[in-house]
Amino acid sequence: QVELVESGGGSVQTGGSLTLSCAPSGRVIESFAWFRQGPRKEREFVAAIDKSAVTKYYAHSVEGRFTASTDRDKNTAYLQMNSLKPEDTAVYFCAASQYFLGSYYLVQERYSYWGQGTQVTVSE
């Protein structure tokens, strides 16, 4: 059984920064992704990265502000979030797959493992 442990959420003011981490246990992960669900919204894609950090994808709304990275030795993924805006307020979920997802990175059902979610709140 794989468990994804997320950390790094919190509250910041507009323009602030946070870094989320996602550490799986029990299995080497090939693909990581981050999704988020804001108040009264559907869960949406934020970013995806393969374990080698060769392939990265970002939602248009976060491109240029968020950066995904991995630490292969720790089998851990990170999401550096800069220039945060109130509309980034959401619960952020890490998702992971033991397979390289390639063009399926947007498909939530392709991810076998999910973190518990971490709250990110950005105030004016």
Key features?
single chain, 124 residues, mainly beta, seven-stranded mixed sheet, four-stranded antiparallel sheet, 11 strands, 0% helix, 50% strand, globular
Brief account:
By secondary structure, this protein is an all-beta fold. It has strands at 3-7, 10-13, 18-25, 31-37, 44-50, 56-58, 66-71, 76-81, 90-97, 113-114, 118-123.
Walk me through the topology:
Elements: E1 3-7, E2 10-13, E3 18-25, E4 31-37, E5 44-50, E6 56-58, E7 66-71, E8 76-81, E9 90-97, E10 113-114, E11 118-123
Parallel strand pairs: 2-11
Antiparallel strand pairs: 1-3, 3-8, 4-5, 4-9, 5-6, 7-8, 9-10, 9-11
Can you put this structure into words, describing what you see?
By secondary structure, this protein is mainly β. It has no helices and eleven strands. The protein has strands at 3-7, 10-13, 18-25, 31-37, 44-50, 56-58, 66-71, 76-81, 90-97, 113-114, 118-123. The strands form two sheets. Strands 2, 4, 5, 6, 9, 10 and 11 form a seven-stranded mixed β-sheet that branches. A four-stranded antiparallel β-sheet has the order 1-3-8-7, with no helix packed on it. It is globular, with a radius of gyration of 13 Å.
Terminal CA distance reads 40 Å
**Number of extended strands:** 11
Helix content: under 10%
Low-pLDDT regions: none
Question: How many helices?
Answer: 0
Mean pLDDT: 95
